[in-house]
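FAQ

Q: What does a record look like?
A: Structure on top, sequence underneath. For example:
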């Protein structure tokens, strides 16, 4: 076999090298361009995905619900004339009242209206009617926006002693706030002539009865309770004793179709009051067709008749 001579081989290498190097450079450039395009596409994809995720996150973000008190406050500001709405201070906390001046030729006094806890000051079951009706009878009404139902009541503890202890702690905290509110309201009521009438509903009526018995709040001249009750058997038994021992004239109004706690312990309150010879105690049952709602005319008649009986 004939071999290539060294000079011939060098000559071929010299002529072939530029072509080969150019091809290699072109291939490397093409590969680099491909890599750059892939990188750009990858970055674009990442940015697009990030934008999509951000948009999805914003869409999925749910604002916390507005508190019940804020809802009530907003409703009152929209539905009641602003000149009647009065912000007040209880300790360091703000609360609202609705003051309705009397429209009668003679001033009887001030009626402070306290709805059930977790209810609006414009509660339609009874309070809102009394807020607007009592002024026609000579009463200036101050309706209080109540506190929310205290969390954890009634206690779910297995042992009764522990449950009683937890309930008492909840009562003490709640009544501390209620004391501040009612103290501020009574100070406001003192600016008007006449006597003090308090109309309170449900659990708040029971809480007030306890505060009055312990002289933590100035006592009214007359006290009207609407479906007064608490949420445990023992608390309702204690309530019956508290009302019986109180020296405040009390009108205990209940409904034919009422809360089960009211239905079960109304007789206990009446019996204890009679046993204690409590003066100026009257219990009346009103016939209603809608559970929890008081018949307006019958309610107004009972309150007016009872106040007349005790000399107001």
């Amino acid at each position: 076999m004939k071999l290539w001579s060294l000079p011939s081989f060098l000559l071929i290498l010299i002529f072939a090298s530029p072509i080969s190097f150019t091809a290699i450079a072109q291939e490397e450039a093409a590969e680099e361009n491909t890599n750059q395009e892939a990188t750009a596409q990858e970055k674009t994809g990442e940015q697009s995905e990030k934008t999509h995720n951000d948009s999805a996150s914003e869409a999925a973000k749910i604002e916390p619900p507005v508190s019940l008190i804020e809802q009530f406050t907003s409703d009152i500001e929209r539905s009641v004339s602003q000149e009647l709405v009065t912000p007040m201070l209880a300790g360091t906390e703000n609360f609202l009242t609705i003051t309705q001046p009397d429209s009668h030729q003679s001033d009887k006094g001030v009626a402070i209206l306290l709805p059930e806890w977790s209810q609006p000051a414009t509660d339609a079951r009874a309070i809102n009617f009394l807020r607007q009706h009592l002024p026609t009878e000579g009463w200036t009404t101050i309706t209080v926006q109540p506190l929310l139902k205290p969390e954890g009541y009634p206690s779910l503890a297995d042992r009764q002693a522990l449950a009683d202890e937890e309930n008492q702690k909840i009562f003490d905290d709640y009544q501390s706030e209620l004391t501040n509110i009612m103290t501020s309201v009574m100070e406001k009521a003192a600016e008007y002539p006449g006597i003090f009438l308090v109309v309170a509903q449900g659990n708040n009526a029971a809480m007030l009865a306890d505060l009055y018995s312990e002289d933590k709040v100035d006592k009214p001249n007359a006290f009207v309770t609407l479906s007064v009750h608490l949420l445990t058997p023992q608390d309702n038994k204690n309530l019956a004793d508290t009302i019986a021992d109180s020296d405040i004239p009390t009108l205990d109004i209940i409904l034919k179709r009422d809360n089960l706690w009211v239905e079960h312990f109304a007789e206990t309150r009446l019996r204890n009051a009679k046993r204690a010879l409590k003066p100026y105690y009257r219990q009346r049952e009103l016939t209603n067709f809608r559970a929890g709602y008081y018949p307006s005319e019958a309610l107004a008649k009972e309150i007016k008749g009872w106040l007349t009986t005790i000399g107001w």
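Q: Is there anything notable about this one?
A: The longest strand covers residues 93-100.
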